[in-house]
Specification:
255 residues; alpha/beta; Rossmann fold; 9 helices; 10 strands; 18% strand; cytoplasm
């Protein structure tokens, strides 16, 4: 089975010298957010993002601050009275780009009945729409993320719990979903991530025999390289493709 992060792992980090948006960014900068709302969300990003990627801070320090960031951001989004009906258009108008080779990646897994579990601290409604618009939302794809709840008029009222942030992507937020239990015979895992927090995504899998951890190192490459090399089996720097992953899948699935 493949367990993957979404933002900047399946989607690109940069394109033509600019940063590509994450699923949160797509919403934060869209036309449905007021100018004041945009400014507040940007301020949160500038304050908390450096903390999120600081190699010198411990997880214990980071976790409560990440909960604080996500909670404040979600509250701001709820105040914007976002309409469910606008989501497809928001994604269409965005600069979201999946990594080069995404089609082969999704197609190979689907054709060979390999489950793809996307574990994301982003906005589930947005990332599902990105995959849908790319025509690769197949039956083998499962997503666990932060989903929005709407009232009868289709207006955002709150985000469904439990809150998923960068550093709690593990079985604590999967309790009761039984996802990995159904896949207990899938003892070989390819894990794809772009942050240190993604390394725990397979923690709920029973009886793991082999796990290959592939990390995309997108940002602050020099200062984070050591940590990534210690933690991931393969580290891909400044790579906007899924070529390495596709090559490995091709090799495994051809056997």
């Amino acid at each position: 089975q493949v367990i993957s992060d979404f933002d900047r792992t399946l989607s690109r980090f940069g394109c033509n010298g600019r940063r590509c948006p994450t699923s949160h960014n797509i919403l934060d900068t869209s036309r449905v957010i007021s100018e004041d709302g945009k400014k507040k969300l940007k301020d949160l990003l500038h304050y908390y993002y450096p903390i999120e990627i600081d190699p010198n801070r411990t997880l214990e320090e980071k976790c409560p601050l990440m909960v604080e960031w996500w909670t404040k951001a979600h509250e701001l989004l709820v105040q914007q009275k976002i309409h469910k009906g606008d989501i497809a258009q928001i994604v269409r108008e965005s600069e979201a780009v999946l990594r080069d080779g995404f089609k082969e990646f999704f197609d190979q897994l689907h054709k060979n009945n390999v489950p793809l579990f996307i574990f994301s601290a982003g906005v589930g409604d947005i990332l599902e729409e990105i995959i849908r618009q790319a025509n690769v939302f197949y039956s083998n794809v499962n997503v666990v993320s932060n989903y929005m709840d709407f009232d009868d008029d289709g207006v955002l009222t709150h985000f469904r719990g439990p809150l998923i942030h960068t550093y709690n992507k593990n079985n604590t937020v999967l309790q009761g979903t039984g996802y990995f239990q159904q896949l207990s015979t899938r003892t070989n895992i390819i894990l794809l991530g772009d942050s240190m927090g993604d390394l725990t995504m397979a923690d709920g899998v029973p009886c793991v025999e082999n796990i290959l951890k592939i990390g995309f190192l997108n940002d602050k490459v020099e200062e984070r390289r050591g940590k990534y090399l210690d933690s991931y089996d393969i580290v891909l720097e400044s790579d906007e493709t899924l070529d390495v992953v596709n090559g490995i899948l091709r090799y495994i699935l051809a056997e």
